[in-house]
Amino acid sequence: MRFDWREFLDLAYFLGGEKDIRYSQESAYRSAVSRAYYAAFCYARNYARDNEGFTPSRSAKDHKNLREHFRRTGKIEIASKLEELSQWRRNCDYDDIIDNLQVIVENALKNAKAIIKELLNYAC
Q: How far apart are CA 9 and CA 87, in angstroms?
């Protein structure tokens, strides 16, 4: 079944403090994937900027450039996990129908947590 994009607005109202708003599980799942990606991406971007000389352009190019940076610096697993997260985020933000959404959510959360944990280990 196609996603009703208006459900994101319901979720936004709920997150904005409107407690009597109902939202679908699908809108919450899609948002969870998106937030997991941005948590990992922004943490990784800042880590690379502060510790490895990565210079963000503050444009959409940073997403690809950051993955390339991690590949160049030997952090292949981080680059791969960011790539998967990015694809899942795009699917959740643009596709009308997503198969296996609950599995994607679980994997997105694991990837984001693993990226942050691995970068924290590098910082020690």
A: 23
pTM of the model: 0.92
Whether the CB-CB separation of 78 and 119 falls below 8 Å is answered with yes
For helices 61-72 and 76-94, the axis angle rounded to 10 degrees is 160
User: pLDDT, tens digit, for every residue of 81-96?
Assistant: 999 999 999 999 999 9
H helices within 1-124, ranges in order? 7-15, 25-52, 61-72, 76-94, 101-123
C-alpha triplet 48, 54, 56: angle, nearest 5°: 105
The C-alpha R_g of the chain, in whole angstroms, comes to 16
